[in-house]
Amino acid sequence: MDESDHEQQGEERHEGRHNRVSAARLLNLLASNGLRHILHYNGLHDANVVEDDEEEDYEFGFFGYRRRARRSGGQQFPKVPSEEGAQLMGSGDFGSNPHYVDKLKRRKQALATKIMWRELGVDVSGPQRRDMQSITQGLIPGSVADKIVHFDSRCYSGQFSDDGDFFFCCAQDFKVRMYDTSNPFEWKYYKTVDYPFGQWTITDASLSPDNKFLAYSSIRNLVCLAPTDPADSSDPAILDLSSLSGRRGGRGLYGNSHFGIWSIRFSGDGREIVAGTSDQSVIVYDLETRQSVLRLQNHEDDVNAVCFGDKSSPHILYSGSDDTTLRVWDRRSMGDGREAGVFMGHTEGLTYVDSKGDGRYVLSNGKDQSMKLWDLRKMMTTAKFDTIDVNRYTTGFDYRFEPYPDDYYEPHPHDCSVVTFRGHRVLKTLIRCHFSPPGSTNSRYVYTGSEDGKVYVYNLDATLAGTIDVGQATANSRPRDPDIFAAAYEIRSSRSDVMWKTCVRDASWHPNSPVLAGKLSRLSG
């Protein structure tokens, strides 16, 4: 993860001006032809150098993953527009259809016409009702930035509350800043809470359903639970997620409690927290007893993302891992400790998982540069999953050091996703994706951050509905930092001028207004 890269860079600086490369770093580059791709990516590769046409087949890549041979062409990318996605757009599960069913009368009404029907309040059924519902679902944020908040550290995540009155933002300085967004066009800062003993960064945060508490994590086994009331200045409560029914648990490489937390989420009733860890486990923590009540350990790599299936029930859990699988857990049938089913289709690790909240659809982002929509009714059974070697279909690609070449892509033979979305870039960090909110968009879209500094908004048929260029909107909005080399995440040099680069790691769509907040690693100024 990011912290290991940080340690490797420290080792390299320690070697002095000889610029020696650690063995782990060298193996990582060689295992995926990373050095050549890095040179291409930064414009340092000699265009006159003729590359070898023959590519070797790696039986085992870095970290033990098998590496496929390079494809000779015809990547077989998913069809766009997606037929399955188009059917979903017309089903009513993802927004209303703004067109007449009668092909002879089919036309797209102007926004003014839709507003007229709403104001008149006449015959609010049939086509008129659909028109009123579709007024806001077509409004995708795309104007210049109305508000820019600068920090001295990179922002890793942030979200609006379900009612839109609250917004929090997590930064690498181990602080979570909170804002009153009851007026989404006029934010008011009111509180900051700290993670007093974090490692590398705050990895995630989750707001309780009543907006009274904020849980936030770092690469430690401890979660901080802080009140959001600005009048409450008490220290955050410390929750030890390694505590399992009065004893220590875990099978991790470093023993019982030496693991980090990548993802946390409150349950719909606010009584529990689910966490994904570097210990290859999913942990459910009871806030009343202050103990972990469940530890699920079937993943074979870091669990980067977790969430509950819906807010009305704490029984269904989703977890996405670097082992390329998205697993479904039903706590009502956990006698054998097995997952209820598995979603396969990503060929690299998952970076984020988001539930639509209806107990049926779930969304994931992957390091194979794709976002996928899944239907719970189409998950793979554990019996079938046990017959498949998941490592056979991955390249072992390390998204921290190189771009993802097109010839790495190959359709997964066991892909059970409904729709695949491609075009954004899932590089450098755990890029997040979300369903658009039901209030302001009628749940019409899915959207994701991207390493290229943009937010990508997709229709359900995998076509691009729009992009929001956060990097361009915030360019030159802040004086240049004199300590640029210490503050920047990635630095590009053009001639003698030093430039930064913007990466949008997370984004949040306001639940009631056409407002979107992008959280970015600000690398250009």
What general form does the structure show?
globular
CATH homologous superfamily heading of the domain at 83-93 and 139-245 and 260-471 and 487-523:
YVTN repeat-like/Quinoprotein amine dehydrogenase
Q: Compute the number of helices.
A: 10
Helix-and-strand structural type: alpha+beta
State the strand order across the main sheet. 1-2-3-4
Low-confidence stretches: 6-19, 31-74, 99-106, 248-255
Helix content: 10-25%
Please state the CA-atom Rg, rounded to the nearest Å: 23 Å
Fold topology:
Layout: H1 2-14, H2 23-31, H3 34-41, H4 83-89, H5 111-120, H6 127-137, E1 155-160, E2 166-171, E3 175-180, E4 188-194, E5 202-207, E6 213-218, E7 222-227, E8 237-240, E9 243-244, E10 247-248, E11 261-266, E12 272-277, E13 282-286, E14 291-296, E15 303-310, E16 313-321, E17 326-330, E18 341-343, E19 350-355, E20 361-366, E21 370-375, H7 382-385, E22 419-422, E23 433-435, H8 438-441, E24 446-448, E25 454-458, E26 464-469, H9 470-474, H10 484-487, E27 491-494, E28 497-500, E29 503-509, E30 516-521
Antiparallel strand pairs: 1-2, 2-3, 3-4, 5-6, 6-7, 7-8, 9-10, 11-12, 12-13, 13-14, 15-16, 16-17, 17-18, 19-20, 20-21, 21-22, 23-24, 24-25, 25-26, 27-28, 29-30
Helix pairs in contact: 5-6
